[in-house]
Amino acid sequence: MVFNLFQMEVDGRLAVSTGVMEWCQPCADTGNNVMGVKFCSVCKEWLCSACTDFHRRLNALKHHTLYDKDALPVAVQDIEQENKTKYCKTHPNELIKYFCPTHTTLHCGDCAASSTCKMDKISNVCKDIRTAEEFKELQSNIGHLIEEASVLESSANEMITSSVEKGARDVDEVERFEQLIIEKIKSHSRSIKGDINIATSELKCQLEGVIDRCNEIKSVGEQLSNGLDESIENNSEVFISFVQAKPVLQSTFDELTAAKDQSKQTTFRFKKSVELENALAKVKSFGSYEAAEATLPARSTDTNIITPDIQPDATSRFFYNILAIRGFLCI
Known about the structure:
It is a single chain. The protein is an alpha+beta fold. It has helices at 25-29, 49-57, 109-114, 122-125, 133-178, 186-227, 235-262, 314-325, and strands at 5-10, 13-18, 38-40, 45-47, 66-68, 96-100, 105-108, 120-121, 265-272, 287-295. It has 8 helices and 10 strands. A 3-stranded antiparallel beta sheet has the order 4-3-5. α6 runs antiparallel to α7 (235-262). It is rod-shaped and about 110 Å long. The relative contact order is 0.11.
């Protein structure tokens, strides 16, 4: 149920009018969209004519104060700041409305009722979230995450091209050397060329895996960025996205570090046998294709840029588990 409330003067007192349609909440819960005509300040719900009559007849409810649309008190404006789309993981049917500053966790009303912690109402603490330094730092770090992934992706693409070209050059070198030796070692020559192709293919697959990881990292970064987008009018949703994003961002930076480790390139070289002319009968007299040291991408920057002070809550662990299931994290 979404409210769009605008303040105006009515008979010397502040009132509000609604800019969008308000549906009767009890009817909506049963799948019927019926226009609400009264607002209950206790239940915080709009009621249609039928539900209004029932409200007034039921002993437990008849003392609740009901307001017409054109006479809502200013206090109802607080509803505008309530979270309306993000639900509790523990109680899926309940909206997140509370923040525990002690454990930096998010809770619904049921969670808050069963907790001994002092809870802050999100609508009260989210008002300055967009101007908070930590919020701005988080946005900056998300941008840095996406930039880092793009740089690594570009480096991986360049290494694929370079490794394929080098592999082709190595094959040519083997073939030139092969022409200098006698026919009986051609089978071993083909084996060496096969080793080159396998090594090149494995390296290509390895770097393609890095690219896939980069795309996943960018996707997570974009999702985090979307959750903090300036077009989102509801500060509660922005605050919740802010709290959830920090631990997810840190784990995603860890994933980016793992992707960098995966992108280390093992180079190979064709090593001719200097004893070939005198040892043609030896099994490896033709030579071998050997691994050299692994190399890092040509372009890279440090990603250890944040030290979040928010411990992972159930939401961040949920994101972490999803990434792990998809093979996104190296755990």
